[in-house]
């Protein structure tokens, strides 16, 4: 085997258009790979599961963004100090217990009807022309409207946060961070923290039935979140909820447009197939391209030697299309068993706290699309944006005929 055989070319923009053949070849022939920046990468389901459920690796802290050029005093650096994704062990468990208590008070199933209603309303925007740019007009708006309902905050507050956050806020955590991305991220995080800080003061004085108030009041064993922890957490939840979910919804629409027979199956019985259809797009087109961890101590695993603190990537497209878990894994098939979960929401200590909400949104979005639209087709083949943290199509331009049923 030459070293070239195992290189995963993240620098190459064309790799992002279809990373799966290269990931699959390296996974099946060599087990693990190396990114072109020299980082070890896990590609098999069994290895990823072992890594995430075991205790030999943990999340990276500030070093993750130091490698991306951020320094103490930068807004994003200070934000990450308290970010739930950067904590491990007892610090992480404490914050996770507080936030999961606040989040589980909100019922996801109770929101389904509203999500479906929002989805149909958004789709109507394209009916006159029979055309819709489904990424910006549908996939991005639906998670925004849903999170407003879910968090219970005012639409105007949510719109301000979303506008300050902007698209691509996750790219500061991606594989190729330029000075431009750093400057934009620092500006964005400084304004957002200030804005949420103001909201926090308001809710302390006038508590409401919303998530921010629930987080302020969240208490476990006499423990509460500090002012900074709370503001960061709220932005974690808000930021984590929109871009990722929008990415998977856009991918779902794209796949249904490319597979009319699968769209017809879903249209024939949306209640029966919406769960497996959503689960299939979640597997087939993961929201994040990778999850990063580091070795807790020096050891050997998966045929590799790790030094203490050494970073490792799980490139999610590898395990999510591993033939040891799914038959013919490169085929998009909405009839697969929805109980066989993929790695898109991770697993173990940092398993996504919003997965139930995200799953409900993706299910209702895909069901509403086929209920509302017949003869869905792409008016042009969109491309995937390269070097991003959250996998994104640049657009999803659709033509369809509106069904007369709604
Ligand atoms: C399709 C949409 C989504 C995807 C693909 C996704 C993916 C993930 C992944 C991979 C992680 C683990 C990261 C790690 O290993 O550190 C995570 C954590 C998290 N997610 Fe999500 N997520 C989605 C939607 C949401 C939503 C809707 C919310 C909030 C309502 C949310 C809130 C969180 C939070 C708070 C964590 C931190 C958990 C922890 O570190 O203990 N996510 N998500």
Oligomeric state as shown: single chain
Distance between termini? Answer: 58 Å
Which CATH architecture would you pick?
A: Orthogonal Bundle
Biggest sheet, in brief? 6 strands, mixed
Q: Which descriptors would you attach to this protein?
A:
406 residues, alpha+beta, Cytochrome p450, 6-stranded mixed sheet, 3-stranded antiparallel sheet, 15 helices, binds protoporphyrin IX containing FE
Plain-language structure description:
α10 (179-205) crosses α12 (227-258). The protein is 49% helix and 11% strand. α1 links the parallel β1 and β2 (32-35). The protein has a single domain, classed as Cytochrome p450, CATH 1.10.630. The chain is globular and about 60 Å long. The strands form 3 sheets. Strands 1-2-3-9-6-4 form a 6-stranded mixed beta sheet. A 3-stranded antiparallel beta sheet has the order 5-11-10. It has 406 residues and is of the alpha+beta class. The chain is built from 15 helices and 11 strands. The longest helix is centred in the middle third of the chain and has 32 residues, at 227-258. Residues 59, 84-85, 96, 236-237, 240-241, 244-245, 248, 287-288, 291, 344-346, 350, 352-354, 357-358 line the site of protoporphyrin IX containing FE (HEM).
Q: Helices and strands in order, then pairings?
A:
Layout: E1 7-8, H1 20-30, E2 32-35, E3 40-42, H2 45-53, E4 57-59, H3 62-66, H4 75-81, H5 89-104, H6 112-124, E5 131-133, H7 134-139, H8 141-151, H9 155-165, H10 179-205, H11 211-217, H12 227-258, H13 260-268, H14 270-284, E6 290-295, E7 299-301, E8 304-306, E9 311-315, H15 355-372, E10 373-378, E11 397-402
Parallel strand pairs: 1-2, 3-9
Antiparallel strand pairs: 2-3, 4-6, 5-11, 6-9, 7-8, 10-11
Helix pairs in contact: 4-10, 6-8, 6-15, 8-12, 9-10, 10-12, 12-14, 12-15, 13-14, 13-15, 14-15
Residues 59, 84-85, 96, 236-237, 240-241, 244-245, 248, 287-288, 291, 344-346, 350, 352-354, 357-358 line the site of protoporphyrin IX containing FE.
């Amino acid at each position: 085997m030459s070293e070239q055989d195992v290189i995963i070319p993240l620098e190459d923009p064309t790799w992002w258009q279809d990373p799966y053949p290269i990931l699959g070849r390296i996974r099946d022939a060599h087990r693990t790979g190396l990114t072109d920046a020299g980082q070890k990468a896990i590609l098999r389901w069994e290895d990823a599961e072992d890594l995430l459920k075991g205790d030999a690796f943990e999340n990276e802290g500030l070093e993750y963004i130091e490698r991306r050029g951020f320094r103490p005093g930068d807004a994003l650096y200070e934000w990450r100090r308290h970010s739930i994704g950067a904590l491990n062990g007892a610090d992480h468990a404490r914050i996770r217990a507080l936030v999961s208590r606040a989040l589980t008070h909100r019922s996801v199933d109770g929101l389904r009807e509203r999500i479906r209603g929002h989805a149909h309303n958004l789709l109507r925007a394209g009916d006159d022309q029979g055309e819709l740019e489904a990424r910006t007009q549908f996939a991005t708006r639906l998670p925004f409207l849903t999170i407003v309902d879910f968090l219970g905050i005012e639409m105007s507050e949510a719109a301000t946060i979303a506008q300050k956050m902007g698209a691509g806020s996750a790219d500061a955590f991606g594989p190729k961070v330029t000075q431009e991305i750093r400057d934009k991220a620092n500006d964005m995080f400084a304004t957002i923290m200030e804005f949420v800080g103001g909201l926090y003061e308001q809710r302390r004085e006038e508590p409401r039935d919303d998530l921010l108030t629930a987080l302020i009041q969240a208490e476990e064993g006499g423990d509460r979140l500090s002012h900074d922890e709370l503001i960061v957490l709220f932005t974690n939840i808000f930021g984590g909820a929109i871009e990722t979910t929008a990415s998977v919804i856009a991918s779902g629409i794209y796949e249904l447009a490319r597979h009319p027979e699968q769209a017809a199956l879903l249209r024939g019985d949306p209640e029966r197939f919406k769960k497996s259809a959503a689960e299939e797009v979640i597997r087939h087109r993961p929201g994040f391209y990778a999850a990063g961890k580091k070795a807790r101590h020096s050891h050997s695993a998966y045929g590799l030697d790790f030094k203490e603190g050494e970073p490792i990537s799980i490139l999610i497209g590898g395990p999510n299309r591993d033939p040891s878990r799914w038959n013919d894994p490169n085929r998009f098939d909405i009839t697969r068993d929805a109980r066989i979960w993929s790695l898109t929401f991770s697993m173990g200590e940092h398993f996504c706290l919003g997965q139930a909400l995200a799953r409900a949104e993706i299910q209702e979005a895909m069901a509403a699309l086929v209920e509302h639209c017949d003869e869905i087709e792409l008016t042009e083949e969109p491309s995937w944006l390269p070097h991003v943290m959250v996998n994104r199509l640049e657009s999803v331009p659709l033509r369809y005929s509106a069904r007369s049923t709604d």
